[in-house]
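Handout, section 4.2: multi-component inputs.
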Amino acid sequence: MSGGNEHIVQMANDIGNFFRAESDRQLAIAGISNHINKFWTRRMRQKLLEYVQHGGNELDELPRAAVAHVTVAPPAQGAAIGAPAATAASK
Amino acid sequence: MISIDEQDLGTPRRESDKLVTLSIDGSEVTVPAGTSVMRAAALAGTKVPKLCATEQLEAFGSCRLCLVQIEGMKGLPASCTTLVSEGMKVTTQNQKIADVRRGVMELYISDHPLDCLTCPANGHCELQDMAGAVGLRDVRYGYEGENHLSLGKDTSNPYFTFDASKCIVCSRCVRACEEQQGTFALTIQGRGFESKVSPSQNESFMDSECVSCGACVQACPTATLSEKTLIDKGQAEHSVITTCAYCGVGCSFRAEMKGQEVVRMVPNKDGHANHGHSCVKGRFAIGYATHSDRILKPMIRSKISDPWREVSWKEAVDYAASELKRIQAKYGRDSIGGITSSRCSNEETYLVQKLVRAGFGNNNVDTCARVCHSPTGYGLKQTLGESAGTQDFDSVMKADVIFVIGANPTDGHPVFASQMKRRLRQGAKLIVADPRRIDLVRTPHISASHHLKLLPGTNVALINSIAHVVVTEGLVKEDFVRARCEVDSFEKWRDFVALERNSPEAMESVTGVPAAQIRAAARLFATAGNGAIYYGLGVTEHSQGSTMVMGIANLAMATGNIGREGVGVNPLRGQNNVQGSCDMGSFPHEFPGYRHVSDDTVRHLFETTWGVGLQSEPGLRIPNMFEAALDGEFKGLYIEGEDIAQSDPNTQHVTAALTSMECIIVQDLFLNESAKFAHVFLPGSSFLEKDGTFTNAERRISRVRKVMQPKSGYADWEITQLLANAMGYPMDYKHPSEIMDEIARLTPTFTGVSFKRIDELGSIQWPCNEAHPEGTPTMHIGEFVRGKGKFLVTEYVPTREKVNARFPLILTTGRILSQYNVGAQTRRTANNLWHDEDRLEIHPHDAEERGIVEGDWVGIASRAGDTVLRARVTERVQPGVVYTTFHFPESGANVITTDNSDWATNCPEYKVTAVQATRVSQPSEWQKRFRDFSETQESLLKAADVSVAK
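Output:
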C-alpha cells in the first residue's frame, strides 16, 4: 500500500462492509459513495481516488466500485468563502 | 440539612385526576387524591410541626410531632401518614395537640446537646425550629440519666461528618439511602434506647457501602450529618440554581453561597432531571474549581521545549491569531481547525464552531462526542430521523422491562440509576447486556432477569439474534410497524434477521451467550409491556457502533416500543453537554440542528446571518486531523476544554500528531496533557464562573448560572470572541443569552428557546418551537421525525482487532463512580480517596495462569503500545476479558487502545483491544517517557512563575 493511505483505505473498506449487507448492489454502491461524499473532506476523497488510480490493491471490490461515484470537483459556491456575504450581519 | 432556600412540604407530591377538598383549621383546600394531610396543610399555608417527615421521602410516622385532630377519627393521627379525604375537617392546633407535641419535643431535647450557638445547623436546624414551634420552655428530665451525648463523631468521609450525639433516630438518612439512592447502606441498629444509625455492619461511613451521594446529609433534620464545608465555613446567605458540570444526567443544584464562595452544592428538589437527588461528584467534588493547579493568566511559547511566558490577554490572543493566520497563509485555509468539548456550554461550543466556519473559513471543527456518542447521532438520524434520545428520564417509571446495553448507570449516570432502581424495585424487569457483571445486575432488592454476558465486540451479533427471535416467534408489533414504519425497509430487515445465521444458536459461539438465554430475554423484552432500552458507550465505542445503534432502533420499532412514555431508545450521554455540543453544530459536516453543510438553503441562512461565505465541504474529524497533521497538512488547532492527549485512543499516535503541529492553542482550567504540547494557553473558567446552558441526555436544556466572577478575568465564550475578533471576524456578544437567541433564530428545533423561557419553565426539552412551546419530553409520538421509521439491515462484521496467541485477552475500558472522564476535575478532589489509580481487572483464572495476584504490577501490551497497571483480581470480568478505567494520565490506558473505529463516524473502538497481560516489576517504557516529559513540562511551567489559583 502506498504510504499515508492506510487510514482512508481502511475507512473505505469499513464503510463497504456495512453496505455489503444491502442486497441491491447499486444501492450498496450508492450508499458507500454518498457516505464518503457526505463525511469525508475533499482532500481525503482525492487521496482515495488517486489510490485507486494507482492500483488500489487493498481496497475491497465494493468500495472500489463506489469510488467512481465519489466526487472531488469543487462544488458550486455562493459567496466566496471568508468573504463578506450578501447581507453581512455578523454579531 | 435541606437547602436554605427550599420549603419542605413534608410528604411527596401526588398526581391524580381526582381532586379532594378538605378543611384545615377552617380553611378549605383542594389537593390531588393521595395527598397527605401534612402536605395539604402546607399547601394551604399551615405548617404542621414535623421531624421524621420530608418531602423527598415517603411518610414514616415515627416522630409523633405532626399529630393532628380529625373530625370523626379517634385519637390524634399523624398528619404525614394520613391521607386526605373529601370533606375531612382537620385541626392542626389546639391545647391538647400542643401538650402532646411539647411532651414529644421534651423527650427529644432531653437527649440532645444544647450547643445550638456553636452548632453548624444553627438557624436551619429542624429540631431547633420545632422546639420553637411547639413552645418548648423547659426540659424536666435533665441529663443525669443515661443518654447519647458523649457518642463520638465519624469523620471518615471526606465530605461530611456523622455526629451521633446529635442524632434523633428519625430514620430520614436511612430512608434517603433506601428510597432516593437505592444503596441501602444505612440501617437502624438495635432497638429502643440502643437504636442508632449504622453504616453497613456498624462500620465507618468510609468503610461501608455508602456511595457518598449526600442524600442522607440533605435529609438529616439536625447537624448529625453535616457537610464539612458547612462546618468550616458556616451557613450560606444566598443560593443560585445552576446545573452540574459532570455527567449527562444534568442535575439541577442550588449553589449555596457566601458572597462568591460556594459553601455547598445542594440538589434542587425542583430539578427536572434529578428531583432533588445527587451523586458524589456533583454534590461534593467541586474543589477543582478553586484548586491551586488552576492557571489564571494566559501564557505563550514558540516551541514546546521553551518555558512558558505569562503574558497579557491581548498579547496571548494576538499571538494566537497571528500564528493561525501565518499557518493559513503558508499551508492553506484548511490547515487549521478547532475542537469543542462536551464539558463546555451550548453557547461556548456554538461560538467555537462559528469561529471555525466563519473565522477560519473551513469546517474543520469537531467535538469530543466524536469519541463517545457520534454513532448515536448517526444511527438514530438514519432510523428515526433525529440525533437524540427519545424520552425523558421520568419515562423509566412507566417501563415494564428495562434493557440496559453497554452502560453502567450506577457508576456513569448515578442519579438516573437511582431512579431506574426505584422502578426496578417496583417490579419492572431488567435485562443487562454487558461483558462485565456491573452493579446493576445484582444490587439490593434488584436482580436482573437476564445478564447477557457477551464477549466485547459482539453487540451486533447479539442484537441480531434477539431480533431473530422477535421476528421468527411472531413477536413483532405488526400494527405499529405497518402504521409507523417504511414497510419495504421492515420487510428487508425482517428477512435478514430471520436468516438462520442470525439465530441465537448460530450466534452463540460468537457472542458467548447461551442461545436459550437470548431467546428468553428476547421474549421478555417483546412481551412484558413497555420495553425501554438504555445504552451507553459499550454500544457506541465499537467498529460497529453505528450499526448497533441502528440495531437498537430496529428492535424498538419492531416491538412497538417507541413514541410514548415508558419505552424508547435512550442513549446515556457520558458528559454533561454531549447532546448540546452535537446540537450546536460541532461536527465538521453539519451546522447547528444537524443540517449538512452542503445544503445550500441552510448554508445561505448561516452565511447571511454570519455575514460571510461558508464552505460547503465537510471538514476534518478529530482522527482525520491527526492523520492530516502527520501528513504535514494540518498545522494549527484551537482546543476548548478537551484533552485529546489523554482521552483519545492510541496516545502515541495522538502525541506524534500534536508534536507535528506549529500552533496548538489550549483553553482549559489546567495545564492538561494536551496543553503540554501547546504553544498558547488561555485560562478557562469553571461552570461556576459563567452563564450558559447545558443539554443533558434527555435533550433537556438547563441554565448554568454564574455564581462568581471568572478567576482568569474572562468566561470561555468571551475568550473565543476575543480570538475571533483578533482573527478579523467580528463578534460582539454582550451576554450568552444573545448567543442562545442567535441559535434559536437559526435552528428550527430551538425556535422557542431563550434564557428567559428556560427561567420560566425551569428547563426545556427540545424540540421547542411553535408546535411544542414548552418542549418535547417524548419524541416520535404519532409520527417519526423522518416521517416513517426506517429499518436498516445490520450485518454483524467482526472487528479486525483479533485475539491470538500473542494478544490472547480482550481489554475493554470504562469508568467508575468517583472519577470523571480524564479526571482533570475529580482527580483534584477528595474523590481520589475512593479511586486513586486505574487498575486492571482480571479474572482469577487468567490471573492464576499468569502468576498474578491482587495488587501486582501487570504489563499490558497491545498492537498499539504497552503500559503497566496494578491488578485487581475479580470475577466481575469474565475469563479472557480484562478491564480498566482511564482517569489517570500516567496509567496510559489509551496507549494500548488502537486506531480502529466505527465505520460511519470514526468513533474509536475503545471497548475492544487485544492484549497480553504479564507480571512485571517496573513501569513501561512509555510510562518512563511520559514521566520525563511531564516533569520537563512542569519545570517549564514553574520557570514561568505563572499565576495560579490561591
